[in-house]
Amino acid sequence: MSNLPTDIHPDSRCRLPPPPRPSESEAQKLYDSHVTPNEHSIRGLHGPAGIYLHSPSLAAKRRAAGRYLRFEADIPPRVREVAILVTARSCQCRFEWAAHDEEARRNGVPEMTIEAIRTENSDLSGIDPIDALIINLGRSIFKQHKVDSRTYAACIAQFGEKNMVDLVALMGSYAATAAVLIAFDMQLDEGVTPAF
What is the CB neighbour count within 10 angstroms for residue 54? Predict the structure, then answer.
């Protein structure tokens, strides 16, 4: 027997029921693309897609932007996953973290980097310099609400202006997803221990 809160639907594991399959063909294609987890949808309907699909127009627009930021922007997968983990941790979004910690490992993020993000360890000595730069950027954005000139200059030197815009937009997109996951109280899978 599950110990879900009383306002959680057992089939969706969040406060909304599973989204209905829409009747319009374009919306059906979008829905069907999320039914089974795949490379573009890590969690299928159990996760942000299952929430966003309650607003099909929003889901379509978010999907296009998300696809660009995750797969078409010039953000290497390792950089992308470090940025997502920093965002998930900064937003205290356990579901987002659980969805991406294994993805980060698959994309070459070292355990030391993952642990530094998870524990919010301020000391980043020994961490890969690019990972440390992304962690500092994320902490500056989400914790200090200000990016100092030195961090900004280092990011521009490392990533360039276009990729810096894309990287910050990626973090912002995952912060928005964290807000949705938190508001609708998306639960972790049975047996998954919260990372923080």
Answer: 15
Reply yes or no on domain 77-183 having CATH 1.10.150.20. Answer: no
| Residue with tokens 């991406």, as numbered in its chain | 100
Helix (H, G, I), strand (E, B) or coil at 23: coil
C-alpha pair distances (Å), 22 with each of 16, 27, 31, 66, 95: 16, 6, 8, 21, 26
pLDDT tens sequence across 32-45: 988 877 767 788 88
Angle between helices 77-90 and 129-139 (to 10 degrees): 30
Q: In the chain, count of helices (H) and strands (E)?
A: 8, 0
pLDDT tens-digit readout, 99-108: 999 999 999 9
β-partners of residue 41 are 38
- Phi, psi for residue 117 in degrees, rounded to 5: -70, -45
CB 45 within 8 A of CB 35: yes
Q: Is the dihedral of CA 61, 188, 81, 145 positive or negative?
A: positive
Residue 122 in 3-state DSSP?
coil
